[in-house]
Design a protein that fits this description.
Blueprint (H helix, E strand, L loop, with lengths): L1 E2 L4 E6 L2 E7 L17 E2 L3 E2 L16 H8 L1
Antiparallel strand pairs: 1-2, 2-3, 4-5
Length: about 70
C-alpha cells in the first residue's frame, strides 16, 4: 500500500503490517495500459504456491479496514 502521508510503501500480510519502505518521491503512474498479473511477471518467472482470495481496491485501505477484510 502506498501511504502518501508518510510517504511510504507498506506491505501487509493477513491484515498485519510486515514491512515498510520510506520513499523520497511518489511512485510513478503507469503510462501505458498493461495486463494485471497475479503470480507471474515478465522476466520474473512464476510464483510457486497458492494465492488465496486476491482482491483489488480502487483506493488504499486503512490498517483497520485491512484487519476487517482479513477476518
Amino acid at each position: 500500500v502506498y501511504d502518501r502521508s508518510l510517504p511510504a510503501l507498506l506491505l501487509y500480510y493477513n491484515g498485519v503490517e510486515k514491512a515498510r519502505t520510506t520513499l523520497t518521491s511518489a511512485p510513478a503512474a503507469a503510462t501505458v495500459a498493461q495486463a494485471l498479473r497475479v503470480g507471474t511477471g515478465e522476466g520474473a518467472g512464476s510464483f510457486i504456491g497458492e494465492i488465496d482470495n486476491p482482491r483489488i481496491y480502487g483506493r488504499a485501505l486503512s490498517a483497520a479496514e485491512l484487519g476487517r477484510v482479513m477476518d
